[in-house]
Amino acid sequence: MKLYDELAHWWHLLSSPDDYREEAEVYWQIISKHQKDTKTLLELGSGGGNNAFHLKKKCTLTLTDLSPSMLEVSKAINPECEHLIADMRTMNLDRKFDLVFIHDAIMSITNESDLIRVFQVAKRHLNSRGILFVVPDFFRETYRPRTSHGGHDAEDRSIRYLEWTYDPDPSDSVVWTDYAYLMKERGQETVCISDSTVDGIFPKSVWESRLAEAGFSVSFEAIRLHGLESEDYTGIVGKLLA
């Protein structure tokens, strides 16, 4: 995806850390419900570090991502956090954490085999009483095509985007998202760039069975955010089986 590579320097104008304030607080409430004393957090697929910007006030964070460009973006707002290039399907830091957190980066996983591999990586990095918290964008049962838009302004440049998510083949395990970015820099003409991603989509039963296969018990937690009250937005908490 261009936004995670050559356009990464636009990330915080497209998706501002301030936009994640409420979201991160709700996540922490859910985490605290299941684990009272979280001191260390490993995030898989941390991207531009928007959740980390808020969660670092709660505990010590280690942030990992496949994209060096996105890690550089995150370092700019989270210089006190450890940043590592790593693949959530294969990484092994040879360290343990109280919490493994995966936000919407989990959507990049498009098949069940890789889903299990991610959960095995999470298990490998958890303390005996640690928990896994995953927040997918949607499940097969709750998915519906959608469009959204947004963007922000800086002193010398601005961006606006249109996002369109659709499912060309409901019988498979992927959906498509197309993006259009309008980018304006001071003294220059507006530029329009297209982008796209292919994301995984699985029913809740698959999440539950694959987590169980990796050694987790599972509970689903409703996430309520202002302006998204009508959305069926759900997090997944995995606890290690004895």
Written overview of the protein:
The longest helix is centred in the N-terminal third of the chain and has 14 residues. This protein is an alpha/beta fold. A seven-stranded mixed beta sheet has the order 3-2-1-4-5-11-10, with helices on both faces. β2, α4 and β3 form a beta-alpha-beta unit. The radius of gyration is 18 Å and the shape is globular. It starts with 10 loop residues before the first helix and ends with a strand. The protein folds into two domains: 177 residues, Rossmann fold; 55 residues, S-adenosyl-L-methionine-dependent methyltransferases. Pfam families: Methyltransf_25. It comes from Neolewinella aquimaris. One of its GO terms (molecular function) is methyltransferase activity.
Topology at a glance:
Blueprint: H1 11-14, H2 21-34, E1 40-44, H3 50-55, E2 60-65, H4 68-77, E3 82-85, E4 97-102, H5 112-124, E5 126-134, E6 146-150, E7 157-166, E8 174-185, E9 191-200, H6 204-214, E10 216-222, E11 234-240
Parallel strand pairs: 1-2, 1-4, 2-3, 4-5
Antiparallel strand pairs: 5-11, 6-7, 7-8, 8-9, 10-11
Offer a few descriptive terms.
S-adenosyl-L-methionine-dependent methyltransferases, 4-stranded antiparallel sheet, 24% helix, alpha/beta, Rossmann fold, 242 residues
Cα-to-Cα separation, first versus last residue = 40 Å
Strand content: 25-35%
Main sheet attributes: strand count, strand direction, barrel closure: 7 strands, mixed
Give the tally of β-strands. Answer: 11
Poorly predicted runs are none
Question: What fraction, in percent, of the residue positions are helical?
Answer: 10-25%
Whole-number count of domains: 2
Shape: globular
Structural class computed from helices and strand pairing: alpha/beta
User: How many whole angstroms does the radius of gyration measure?
Assistant: 18 Å
Number of contiguous helices: 6
Strand order of the largest sheet: 3-2-1-4-5-11-10
CATH topology of the largest domain: Rossmann fold
Name given to the CATH architecture of the largest domain: 3-Layer(aba) Sandwich
* N-to-C series of helices and strands: HHEHEHEEHEEEEEHEE
Mean pLDDT: 96
Q: What is the CATH homologous superfamily assignment of the largest domain?
A: Vaccinia Virus protein VP39
What is the CATH class of the largest domain? Alpha Beta
